[in-house]
Structure formats: C-alpha cells, structure tokens
C-alpha cells in the first residue's frame, strides 16, 4: 500500500464522511501514488501561483531566512511536515549546505513514495546534506519530537498545508505543535494571502483539469482500495471562494441521482442530483488573521517574508516568552 494509513482507518473515515448529512471526504487521502503525481502537475501549472510565490521568497530572501534560522549559530534540525516533493525547500537546503551550515533535514510525509523520491533526489542533488526521511501522519508523530531543545528544531509547514485545515483543526495542530517544541525552537509556516477572487478560483479550477483529476482520484482510490463502484464520469469538481472569510472550498458534485455501493463497508450510499461531497479547504489569510493565530496558540512572530506581488507569506514564529 502506498500510504502508511491502515485500510480500516481509510474505511472508517470514508464511512463517517459519506454517512454525514453534509457528505465529506478527508483531504489527507488525496495523496496515494497517483494523487502525489497529480499534485506535482498542479504545482507546475501557471495558474497555481502559490509555488512561484514561495519559490520567489526562498530564492530572493534565503540569506535573511538563514540568518534567522541560525539564531546564534548552533546546530539545528529542520523537520518538514508534509514535505511533498520538497521542490521549494531544496532552494533553502542547497543554500545552507553551500554556506557550510551544520544542520540535518527530516522530511515527513504521509505518502511513502513522496518521502522515498525526495530522499533519493536529495542524495543526488545536494550531496553533503544530512537527510533522514520519515513516512507517517505528522499529527501522530508530533508527540515524539520534543527532545528538550537539543538539538534546536525548526519545523517547516510550507506551501499552503496549514490552509487545508478548518479553523478547529488549525488551532489543534498549532497547539500540538507548540507542545512538541522547546523555547529555542522555531516554526516556519506558509500562508496563502487573501487576493482577488478570480486569481484564487483560476488556481483551483484550472483549464487543463488537473485539480478536477486530483479530486476525482479520491473516488478512484475508494473504488480500488475499498471495493466501491463510483462511476467517476457521474461526478464533477467545483471550487467556491468566500472573500470575506477567505475560505476556498473544493467539492465533488453528483451529476445525477445515483447509488454507490462500497463492498468493504457493506453499505450503499445515495446521492441526489447536484449533491456535494466536500473534499478540501484552502484557507486564505490576511496579516491580522496570522497574528491572531500566533497569539491564540502561544507563539510570537519573529519575521514575515512576502513575495513581490504580496500573494503569499512565510511567517517565522517562536514560542511566546
Ligand atoms: C499540498 S501538499 C504540499 C507539499 C509541500 N509542503 C509543498 O509546499 O509543496 C501536502 C503534502 O502533505 C502531505 N500530507 C497531507 N496530510 C498529511 C498528514 N496528515 N501527515 C503527513 N503528511 C501529510 C501530503 O502527502 C502532501 O505531500
């Protein structure tokens, strides 16, 4: 199996989501082998501005980022939660290695193939980098991180990973993360900023249909792993954005009234015409929201880095003293 999630957990979550009055599926199940590949296509699309913006921040501000990470020069461990293909992180890592900085890099991802490919690629691309890849659910791994500040840790949560949580999950994640850190540790988080609606909608409703494929692949995965009979052509993907809350949300929508049987659950689910299955949140932020989030969860902002269009922000935090 591609992800190290037990099949019964996938079955349980699918049962819960599809039995709910407002049907939903969890976005962490997007990333089977095919899903991780499609996500790489999404990152390469011109409409998906997030990758370019964060890449620009790292390329143009890597020196300042390094100087904050060094924080006096001691050895540090970089833990990247949900590292994916590490495309942008590599810009920072190779700069740090070129500067002969003493650090280790531990990418963590629920997708086994993502971690394996990343670690193999890094050995080739950045010789001399000390790397230790870990596969698993970062929620479950957070508890094992605290080693009383020795060595100092910097937790990276890049892209718009944090935006995929709803409000309660965001607080829960940051509070758990805080518990796993010591006073000299830091957190470096990517936040997609609020911007014109059509720029956001284009990024999640791309012409080539990669985002639609990414969402529909979740049904393909349920068919394969849980023995379901979803007819993929009878569903389509839609994105909605609410500019006041900053919430961009993805749905799969049933084109017709239909029934789907899932063998492993021994259950049939009915879908009305136009009924939605909620699949993913992509929260957009403003500076006030980011400051409130840090405050509420016991962090303080060390420094913010933005791209030239001010579409994206990487925010460096430490524990409130
Ligand atoms: C949206 S991608 C972003 C990847 C990368 N951070 C970037 O900026 O390009 C999210 C990544 O997080 C991983 N992921 C999602 N939920 C996870 C979880 N609960 N535990 C560990 N990894 C997770 C996925 O497999 C995927 O590689």
Using brief descriptors, characterize the structure shown.
alpha/beta; 38% helix; Rossmann fold; binds S-adenosylmethionine; 8-stranded mixed beta sheet; single chain; 2 domains; 25% strand; 321 residues; 3-stranded antiparallel beta sheet; 10 helices
Q: In a few lines, what is going on in this structure?
A:
By secondary structure, this protein is of the alpha/beta class.
Q: Layout of helices and strands, plus pairs?
A:
Elements: H1 7-19, H2 33-44, H3 49-70, E1 76-81, H4 89-98, E2 103-109, H5 112-125, E3 130-131, E4 134-135, H6 138-141, E5 152-157, H7 167-179, E6 186-192, H8 197-204, H9 210-226, E7 235-242, E8 247-254, E9 258-262, E10 267-271, E11 276-283, H10 287-296, E12 299-306, E13 312-319
Parallel strand pairs: 1-2, 1-5, 2-3, 2-4, 5-6
Antiparallel strand pairs: 6-13, 7-8, 8-11, 9-10, 12-13
Helix pairs in contact: 2-9, 3-4
The structure holds S-adenosylmethionine.
Residues 28, 31, 39, 82-84, 108-111, 114, 137-139, 158-159, 161 line the site of S-adenosylmethionine.
Report on the structure:
This protein is of the alpha/beta class. The chain has two domains: 111 residues, no CATH class; 180 residues, Vaccinia Virus protein VP39 (Rossmann fold), CATH 3.40.50.150. Helices cover 38% and strands 25% of the residues. It contains ten helices and 13 strands. Strands 1, 2, 3, 4, 5, 6, 12 and 13 form an eight-stranded mixed beta sheet that branches. Strand 9 and strand 10 form a beta hairpin. Helix 2 packs antiparallel against helix 9 and helix 3 packs parallel to helix 4. The longest helix is centred in the N-terminal third of the chain and has 22 residues. The protein is globular and about 60 Å long. It starts with 6 loop residues before the first helix and ends with a strand. The model has no long low-confidence stretch (mean pLDDT 94). The protein binds S-adenosylmethionine.
């Amino acid at each position: 199996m591609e992800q190290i999630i037990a099949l019964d957990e996938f079955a349980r979550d699918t049962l819960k989501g599809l039995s709910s009055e407002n049907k939903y599926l969890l976005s962490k199940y997007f990333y089977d082998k095919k899903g991780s590949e499609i996500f790489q296509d999404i990152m390469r699309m011109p409409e998906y501005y997030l990758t370019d913006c964060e890449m620009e921040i790292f390329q143009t501000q890597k020196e300042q980022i390094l100087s904050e990470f060094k924080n006096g020069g001691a050895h540090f461990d970089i833990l990247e939660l949900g590292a994916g293909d590490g495309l942008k992180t590599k810009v920072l890592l190779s700069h740090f290695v070129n500067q002969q900085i003493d650090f280790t890099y531990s990418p963590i991802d629920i997708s086994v193939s993502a971690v394996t490919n990343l670690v193999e690629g890094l050995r080739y691309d950045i010789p001399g980098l000390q790397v230790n890849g870990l596969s698993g659910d970062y929620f479950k791994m957070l508890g094992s991180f605290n080693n009383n500040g020795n060595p100092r840790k910097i937790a990276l949560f890049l892209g718009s990973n944090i935006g995929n949580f709803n409000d309660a999950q965001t607080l829960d994640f940051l509070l758990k993360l805080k518990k796993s850190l010591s006073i000299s540790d830091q957190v470096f988080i990517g936040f997609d900023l609020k911007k014109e609606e059509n720029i956001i909608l284009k990024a999640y409703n791309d012409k080539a249909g990669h985002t639609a494929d990414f969402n529909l692949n979740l049904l393909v995965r349920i068919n394969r792993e849980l023995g379901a009979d979803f007819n993929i052509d009878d569903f389509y993907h839609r994105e909605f954005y609410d500019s006041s809350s900053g919430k961009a949300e993805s749905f799969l929508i049933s084109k017709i009234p239909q029934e789907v049987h899932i063998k492993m659950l021994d259950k049939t689910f009915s879908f009305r015409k136009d009924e939605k299955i909620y699949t993913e949140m992509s929260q957009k932020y403003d500076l006030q929201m980011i400051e409130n989030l840090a405050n509420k969860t016991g962090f303080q902002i060390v420094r913010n880095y933005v791209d030239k269009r001010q579409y994206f922000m990487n925010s460096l935090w430490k524990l409130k003293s």
